[in-house]
Amino acid sequence: MATTTSSTGSTQQTSFDYTSLNKTTTTSKTDMEDQSDRFMKLLVTQLQNQDPMNPMESAEMTSQMAQINTVTGINKLNTTMTQLMSAYSASQGMQAATVIGHDVMAPGSTMTFDGSTAMDMALNLSATTENIRISIVDKNGNVVEQRTQSSAAAGTVSMNWDGKLADGSMAPAGQYKIVARGTVDGKDVALDTLTWQKAGSVELSSSGVKVVLADGSAVDFAKVTKIR
């Protein structure tokens, strides 16, 4: 605590620096009460040591009281925001838990084909894309389906695969992968894909709520676009 003294006759007037109170920004109730206690002690000491002929002006006292009010207000705001974020995270976690056991469409490239039911999938394009090429690959790396599209605007481009091979027969049940590329601003780039997968569990972490999919990958709950 910084102090300065000035002589007025035989009486010493002490001026206290209350800005040091602003250095503590913790949010516990004990710390906030401690700051208030320290402030009151400092204020009482200053009043006791003031020059009776030159007492503290009301504006100065108001300013000093405003400093502790500011610190207390910031601490209360921090506490409130922390509580709101905790409540939001818990709420989002409860919402995410409802998808467990359901199929969700989310960023990914893995698909599970049951041997008869057509599989829906989609491209998630961030910009207008040209020369789109899509390949569906089996677990051995063999391309079982290919298709092209001249162009598409930014957004979600839905599509499906009926499971038929080039010779008209049905592909065997199992895991497949969609690989997509296209041209954006003259550059050949990999395109983001969305596939349906079963949601196995939900993870709560400091980075947010994630849904763990059947292939072991985890995606942000906010990126899940559909549930069935």
Automatic annotation (TrEMBL):
<feature type="domain" description="FlgD/Vpr Ig-like">
    <location>
        <begin position="109"/>
        <end position="183"/>
    </location>
</feature>
<dbReference type="Pfam" id="PF13860">
    <property type="entry name" value="FlgD_ig"/>
</dbReference>
<comment type="similarity">
    <text>Belongs to the FlgD family.</text>
</comment>
<keyword id="KW-0282">Flagellum</keyword>
<keyword id="KW-0969">Cilium</keyword>
<dbReference type="Pfam" id="PF03963">
    <property type="entry name" value="FlgD"/>
</dbReference>
<dbReference type="GO" id="GO:0044781">
    <property type="term" value="P:bacterial-type flagellum organization"/>
</dbReference>
<dbReference type="InterPro" id="IPR005648">
    <property type="entry name" value="FlgD"/>
</dbReference>
<keyword id="KW-0966">Cell projection</keyword>
<comment type="function">
    <text>Required for flagellar hook formation. May act as a scaffolding protein.</text>
</comment>
<protein>
    <recommendedName>
        <fullName>Basal-body rod modification protein FlgD</fullName>
    </recommendedName>
</protein>
<dbReference type="InterPro" id="IPR025963">
    <property type="entry name" value="FLgD_Tudor"/>
</dbReference>
<dbReference type="InterPro" id="IPR025965">
    <property type="entry name" value="FlgD/Vpr_Ig-like"/>
</dbReference>
<feature type="domain" description="FlgD Tudor-like">
    <location>
        <begin position="91"/>
        <end position="225"/>
    </location>
</feature>
<keyword id="KW-1005">Bacterial flagellum biogenesis</keyword>
<dbReference type="Pfam" id="PF13861">
    <property type="entry name" value="FLgD_tudor"/>
</dbReference>
